[in-house]
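Case study.
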Amino acid sequence: NAGVTQTPKFRVLKTGQSMTLLCAQDMNHEYMYWYRQDPGMGLRLIHYSVGEGTTAKGEVPDGYNVSRLKKQNFLLGLESAAPSQTSVYFCASSYPGQSSYEQYFGPGTRLTVT
Amino acid sequence: AQKVTQAQTEISVVEKEDVTLDCVYETRDTTYYLFWYKQPPSGELVFLIRRNSFDEQNEISGRYSWNFQKSTSSFNFTITASQVVDSAVYFCALRDATNKLIFGTGTLLAVQP
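After joint prediction, the assembly is written out as follows.
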C-alpha cells in the first residue's frame, strides 16, 4: 500500500496564479483532511471531507476550495494564490466516524507564492 | 473552546539524557482522544500514540512513555536515554467529538551527540 500520497511535492507560484494539489489514499478511508503548517503555528485544518461528495470548512478555509469526487482523492485548489498561502500542505485520511483512529498523513507539499 | 498548548518551543539535550515534552489541553467534551506525532527533519508526520479520555493508564513503549492526567489536563511525553535520531518536532493533538484534530504548536527537540 502506498498510504497517502500528495502531488506535487514542491511548487512555486506567482501571485494570482491558480493550482490544484492532489491527495490520494489507498486505504479505503472515508475521512480526508487538508492542513497547512506554518512556522510556530502547528498544523491548522483548512477543509475536510467525511465521505465522497461531501466537504466542510475547517479552521482556515478562506482562499481555498476542495472537491471529493472520488472516495480515494481529495483535491485542494487555490484560485488566486497569495503570498500568505506560502506554506507546507499536508493531506491526511482516517477511518469513518471513529474518533479513536489516528489520521494518516501524506508527505506534504511545499508551496511558495512569490 | 478546544485548545492544545505545548509551552516548550525548543528543547536541547545531550544524548542519553531523559527529556519530557509537556502537553496541556482544554476541552468541554467528556469523550476525547489525545495523540502524539513526530515530525523528523525529513518532514513527514509519524503517529506515535493515541489515548482516550477514559484510559488514564500510563503507557511505555521502549524508550518512550506517556503520562496522561485528567486532573491537570496534561498528556506528557518522556523519552528516556535520548538519541540523536530522536531529534524532531513533536506535536500533541486533541481529537474532539467532531473528529477534527487540534494540534499544539509543537516542540522542537534537538539531541546533541
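Observations recorded in class. Chain A touches chain B through 24 residues (CB under 8 Å). The mean pLDDT of chain A is 93. We will return to this complex in the next lecture.
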